[in-house]
């Protein structure tokens, strides 16, 4: 089975089931989608709105319709010639679950004891589930303890700092078979593998999976800006955060007005994570280091993980990343740690430090530093690099050509269930880089009226407000509560600051009622729409397999989860699609119908098959405002840096078109290389050879 032409991601919840997905399948087919891409479909904790808290991997989730519902969905997709891509979670399961309960009942004698990554040296599993004033409950095979002991004494591996998600040892063939048998029997088009960096041996896991699955295989691997997937992994590519960084970056103007020392903030954030919420993991690794005092070993382990230039290495592959982390570290025991890891790169010490480095980097960078370093938050995205401001057109072309040559079937994305803010929020915020003085003056004036006392949260709040406008007090309040606690500066999830929490909770009501806010949003709204349409068309036609996150075929101004998992109004979308199918050319306005037009036309062109990559270059005084390329006789044209373009216009700028007649499929009009004419209706164009 080959890769689908495109995917459409849906979030299954008890209120959006397999039957609901089947109900929109015809709409997706008309939209031009190649495959439905679903969040985890195996049984999960009751009421879960995301499905990553799997309780039973041996059956489809009953709350979503169970196996009958799953089969009915696949039947409907087959009828419409749509594929099905499923998200699976090999790294962890939520506890309690039936296997875990058997372990607690029988200890090391349980037939499932080897399924979980438990340190049995103490003889009991520590369960940090009790309130602070409760006595410890001692049982034969487990100990119920104060919840605060989890971060320092936990003796089973978990997903990041979430003690309810216990790691599963899929490197064991028996565990792999038990956890994958059901989903591999479904005959799906593709699999999306969640969090491979938590696995003991990701490469070995993918090789074993390939023995059982010959479909499309993409992995949720967060790559650094100059990092590639290990060549030994038999996968089609990542889930697209690398493409997201590039596509968004090319629509951001270079600017030094938002500069700061991101790496200093990032290093301090990672160090705090290693020294607090992941202490249990650090101590477990340190006990494996021989020949040095325990506390020195702890310091060395933490420092090396804090200094990783990427999420993790895959020794012996990627040894240069390990070497960089060691070279940056100064703890006395680092040399002993390095020697022991190099001596046995597949041993337990090397394995555990690699598994855990990704946790330190993710929690330290994505979930801490990105909420502290808030100079320009459009860059603060999963897989993003806030220190790299914008991307040149030439670098974009080079990276796109590299993807076509090396990983043409990798997924590309602009919004996901894990992005810090949606694609349209980032597109609007990108406008600020073109008018930095104007924005900073606005922010200063607003801060004078209603500033938040913590400066980094204050900057984040104002950018979030204008980026996600319009939004309710409740949505903004929930977001700022999460942002302030993730930042861990004046409050946190673990140690609350009631006075500061109250200040943050009161802020949305004040800020939302300021007329200056709505006036500023009006100033940046239209160029934001231009950026949105440009980056969407580029994503849908550039190398890779594009994913459309649920609902984002219209404007979507969502913030981080759970905001981005709100229900989608498919009735509105179907009504607008019917009008577009009848020939309607919508205006670029608040309805977002223009984006739906771009998505529908591009996805149908995409189904023809696009191959190769040829950069095209505009000529004339506004040439820098064009991003264009050709693939298989299809030309993509997108406007970039629209505020600067407003000030000077296209003048005599042209895009030389190769060969004879071209038609813009968005408007149905004959196309010429005169950009003032070509882009007079929409800021983007999609050209095909011949007459309409």
TrEMBL record:
SMART domains registered for this protein in UniProt: Aamy (SM00642)
The ranges of region (Disordered) come to: 48-68
GO terms for biological process, alphabetical: alpha-glucan catabolic process; trehalose biosynthetic process
Q: Where is the composition biased (Basic and acidic residues)?
A: 56-68
Q: Which GO terms describe its molecular function?
A: (1,4)-alpha-D-glucan 1-alpha-D-glucosylmutase activity
Q: Which InterPro entries match?
A: GH, GH13_cat_dom, Trehalose_TreY
Which Gene3D superfamilies does the UniProt entry name for this protein? Glycosidases (3.20.20.80), Maltooligosyl trehalose synthase, domain 2 (3.30.1590.10)
> Residue limits of the Glycosyl hydrolase family 13 catalytic domain?
18-487
Which CDD domains does the record associate with it?
AmyAc_MTSase
The protein here is known as: Malto-oligosyltrehalose synthase
């Amino acid at each position: 089975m080959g890769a689908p032409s495109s995917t459409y991601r849906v979030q299954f919840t008890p209120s959006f089931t397999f039957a609901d997905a089947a109900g929109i399948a015809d709409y997706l087919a008309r939209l031009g989608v190649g495959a439905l891409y679903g969040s985890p479909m195996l049984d999960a904790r009751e009421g879960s709105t995301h499905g990553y808290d799997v309780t039973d991997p041996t059956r489809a989730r009953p709350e979503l319709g169970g196996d009958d519902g799953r089969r009915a969905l696949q039947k409907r997709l087959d009828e419409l010639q749509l594929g099905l891509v499923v998200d699976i979670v090999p790294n962890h399961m939520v506890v309690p679950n039936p296997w875990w309960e058997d372990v607690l009942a029988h200890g090391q004698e349980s037939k499932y004891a080897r399924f979980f990554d438990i340190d049995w040296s103490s003889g009991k599993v520590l369960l940090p589930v009790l309130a602070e004033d409760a006595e410890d409950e001692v049982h034969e095979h487990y100990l119920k303890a104060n919840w605060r002991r989890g971060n320092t004494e936990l003796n089973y591996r978990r997903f990041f700092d979430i003690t309810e998600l216990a790691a599963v040892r899929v490197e064991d063939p028996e565990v792999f078979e038990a956890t994958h048998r059901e989903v591999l029997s479904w005959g799906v088009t593709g699999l999306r593998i969640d969090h491979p960096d938590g696995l003991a041996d990701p490469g070995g896991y993918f090789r074993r999976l390939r023995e059982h699955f010959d479909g499309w295989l993409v992995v949720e691997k967060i790559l650094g800006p100059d990092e590639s997937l290990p060549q030994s992994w038999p996968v089609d590519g990542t889930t697209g955060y690398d493409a997201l960084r590039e596509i968004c970056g090319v629509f951001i103007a270079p600017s030094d007005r938002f500069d700061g020392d991101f790496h200093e903030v990032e290093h301090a954030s990672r160090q705090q994570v290693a020294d607090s919420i992941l202490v249990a993991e650090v101590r477990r690794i340190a006990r494996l280091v021989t020949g040095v005092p325990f506390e020195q070993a702890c310091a060395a382990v933490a420092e090396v993980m804090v200094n990783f230039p990427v999420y993790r290495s895959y020794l012996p592959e990627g040894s240069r990343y390990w070497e960089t982390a060691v070279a940056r570290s100064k703890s006395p025991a680092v040399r002993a740690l390095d020697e022991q890891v190099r001596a046995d790169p597949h041993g337990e010490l090397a394995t555990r430090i690699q598994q855990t480095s990704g946790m330190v980097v993710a929690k330290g960078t994505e979930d801490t530093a990105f909420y502290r370093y808030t100079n320009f938050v459009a860059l603060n995205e999963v897989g993003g690099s806030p220190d790299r401001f914008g991307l040149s057109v030439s670098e974009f072309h080079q990276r796109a050509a590299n993807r076509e040559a090396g990983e043409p079937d990798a997924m590309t994305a602009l919004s996901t269930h894990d992005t810090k803010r949606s694609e349209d929020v980032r597109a609007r915020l990108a406008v600020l880089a073109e008018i930095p003085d104007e924005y900073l003056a606005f922010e200063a004036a607003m801060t004078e009226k209603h500033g938040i006392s913590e400066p980094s949260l204050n900057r984040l709040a104002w950018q979030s407000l204008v980026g996600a406008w319009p939004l309710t007090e409740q949505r903004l309040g929930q977001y700022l509560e999460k942002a302030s606690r993730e930042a861990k500066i004046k409050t946190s999830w673990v140690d609350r600051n009631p006075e500061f929490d109250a200040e943050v909770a009161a802020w949305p009501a004040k800020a939302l009622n300021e007329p200056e806010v709505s006036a500023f949003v009006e100033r940046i709204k239209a160029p934001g729409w231009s950026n949105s349409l440009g980056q969407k068309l580029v994503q849908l036609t550039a190398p890779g397999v594009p994913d459309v996150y649920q609902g984002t075929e219209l404007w979507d101004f969502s913030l981080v989860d759970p905001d981005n998992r709100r229900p989608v109004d498919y009735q509105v979308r179907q009504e607008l699609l019917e009008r577009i199918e009848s020939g309607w050319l919508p205006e670029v306005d608040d309805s977002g119908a223009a984006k739906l037009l771009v998505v529908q036309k591009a996805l149908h062109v995409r189904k023809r098959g696009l191959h190769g990559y040829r950069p095209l270059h505009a000529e004339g005084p506004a040439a820098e405002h064009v991003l264009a390329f050709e693939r298989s006789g299809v030309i993509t044209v997108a406007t970039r840096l629209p505020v600067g373009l407003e000030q000077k216009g296209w003048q005599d700028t042209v895009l030389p078109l190769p060969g004879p007649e071209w038609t813009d499929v968005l408007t149905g009009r004959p196309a010429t290389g005169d950009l003032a004419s070509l882009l007079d209706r929409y800021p983007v164009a999609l050209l095909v050879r011949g007459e309409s």
